[in-house]
Specification:
The protein is an alpha+beta fold. The protein folds into 3 domains: 76 residues, RNA polymerase II/Efflux pump adaptor protein, barrel-sandwich hybrid domain (OB fold (Dihydrolipoamide Acetyltransferase, E2P)); 149 residues, RNA polymerase II/Efflux pump adaptor protein, barrel-sandwich hybrid domain (OB fold (Dihydrolipoamide Acetyltransferase, E2P)); 220 residues, Chloramphenicol Acetyltransferase (2-Layer Sandwich), CATH 3.30.559.10. The strands form 8 sheets. Strands 19, 22, 25, 26, 27, 28 and 29 form a 7-stranded mixed sheet that branches. A hairpin with a 2-residue loop joins β23 and β24. α6 packs across α7 and α6 crosses α8.
Length: 498
């Protein structure tokens, strides 16, 4: 009998969290075969078998906190698995689905996820054991620090087994599933996924994959998961959908209680682990506050001329270029024009060096269901209004669909963020490191302004420029914002390069 214990995890690391078991009690194991993954606040560590044998017992379940030297499980020496395991595993993989015409068992591994990205979190299985898959069908979604990546099926067949549980950290090359190449799906999988609760027959009857969190909430509140309207991918119900469904009182009545007892409307609070994207957003925004000498200056702009141009040419513009003429292309042009005059706003600090950029790659802040991303419009100063509008539209759609590539997010020199689409009147945007400037747009309001001694009602917008005072002086920041204002109030200046 050999004990499986928590190894030394590095200097100053005294405990870890049990991630996922790759073996279940009763499984045969080979020496040096990975049994379980431990997660620390710095790294993920794989614990391997010290000898050949059978995993007889799991003592630390997934999610448990364990200290160095703690007992995780036991291996009995010898070959061959027991007929029945001593106990069920804590979570992860599902039993293989029954298939017909099974061919080669093809393992699915985590693909390369972009420059400098070495790991991600398996956020969702898009296919379940027993589901038929075609070549390149997405079977799982992995969240990295910046984007969500779909893992495609390398062959056509049937997904026979999932090896990794949702929420597990995976590295490039990690095997996450097995596909029976050329097989056809049977009427039902041999067993439900191990991550599902022992649950209602309604879950098994559902043709769409049901997330584990939705199954849990459904079971706790006595509802059928198939009754929950879904807003997720392919109409699947999300955890939020399930909570809203229960909170709106659409679950079945609870067992009879005392008349004075109030009706339960769902949990009063909920603890949810931040996604990798949200963790990165939080870290980078706080780093910007801690690192840069950030300051914001304001101005307002009269958009009468821009709106007149849009109204006059919008139909002809759409007919010729196939895209609508929006405000963002005007603002992008005005910004690149001002950046050429004030290069410090387009620069960055690297240690004790200043790096001045002679190109103008403008990051556009886009709000998505998973958080804020900033895809980049490359060489915006060399593009026409139509090209800018088309590129913004393309990047915005990729962002909302979760299909941005790493290359779409890297290398911006200045950022534009438009809080006006949400109704913001004024804000102080936070820098997007290592950039030194970000322009905040806001809602357009009809306001009275004095023009040549007369009060006129004009479409006005407040502008905010946040900048790094370590590299950009107040005079440069104010001048930059004035140039943007002048370019928008008199667009002909852009055409004449004034």
């Amino acid at each position: 009998m050999a004990d499986i214990t928590v190894p030394v995890l590095g200097e100053s690391v005294t405990e870890a969290t049990v991630g996922s078991w790759s073996k279940a009690p009763g499984d045969a194991v080979a020496k040096d075969e990975v049994l379980v993954e431990l997660e620390t606040d710095k790294v993920s560590v794989e614990v391997s078998a010290a000898e050949d044998g059978v995993l007889t017992e799991i003592l630390a379940k997934e999610g448990d906190n364990v200290e160095i030297g703690a007992l995780l499980g036991r291996i009995s020496a010898g070959d061959g698995a027991k007929a029945e395991p001593a106990s069920a595993p804590a979570a992860t993989s599902a039993a293989p689905a029954a298939t017909s015409g099974s061919g080669e068992q093809v393992k699915v591994a985590v693909p390369a996820m972009g420059e400098s990205v070495t790991e991600g979190t398996l956020s969702q299985w898009l296919k379940q054991p027993g589901d038929a898959v075609a070549v390149d069908d997405p079977i799982a979604e992995i969240e990295t620090d910046k984007v969500a990546i779909e893992v495609p099926a390398p062959v056509a067949g049937v997904l026979s087994e999932t090896l990794i549980a949702e929420g597990t950290t995976v590295g490039i090359g990690t095997e996450i599933a097995i596909i029976a190449a050329g097989a056809s799906a049977s009427a039902a999988p041999a067993a439900a996924p191990a991550s599902a609760p022992a649950a209602s027959s309604a879950s098994a009857d559902s043709s769409a994959a049901v997330a584990p969190s939705v199954r849990r909430i459904s079971a706790e509140n006595n509802v059928n998961p198939s009754d929950i309207p879904g807003t997720g991918r392919d109409g699947r119900a999300t955890k939020g959908d399930a909570l809203n469904f229960v909170a709106n009182g659409e679950s079945k009545p609870a067992p009879a209680a005392a008349p004075s007892a109030p009706r339960a409307t769902g949990p009063r609070e909920e603890r949810v682990k931040m996604t990798r994207l949200r963790q990165t957003i939080a870290r980078r925004l706080k780093e910007a506050q801690n690192t840069a000498a950030m300051l914001t200056t304001f101005n307002d702009v009269d958009l009468t001329e821009v709106m007149a141009i849009r109204k006059k040419y919008k139909d002809l513009f759409l007919e010729k270029h196939g895209v609508k003429l929006g405000f963002m292309s005007f603002f992008t042009k005005a910004v690149t024009h001002a950046l050429k005059e004030l290069p410090a706003v387009n620069a960055e600090i690297d240690g004790t060096d200043l790096i001045y950029k002679n190109y103008y790659d403008i990051s556009m802040a886009v709000g998505t269901d998973k958080g804020l991303v900033t895809p980049v419009v490359r060489d915006a100063d060399q593009m026409s209004l139509a090209q800018i509008e088309a590129e913004i539209g393309r990047l915005g759609k990729l962002a909302r669909d979760g299909k941005l590539a790493m290359s779409d997010l890297q290398g911006g020199t200045f950022t534009i963020t438009n809080g006006g689409v949400y109704g913001s009147m004024m804000s102080t945007p936070i820098l997007n490191p290592p950039q030194s400037g970000v322009l905040g747009m806001h809602r357009i309001e009809q306001r009275p302004v004095a023009i040549n001694g007369e009060v006129k009602i004009r479409p006005m917008m407040y502008l905010a420029l946040s900048y790094d005072h370590r590299i950009v002086d107040g005079k440069e920041a104010v001048t930059f914002l004035v140039r943007v204002k002048e370019n928008l109030e008199d667009p002909e200046r852009l055409l004449l390069d004034l």
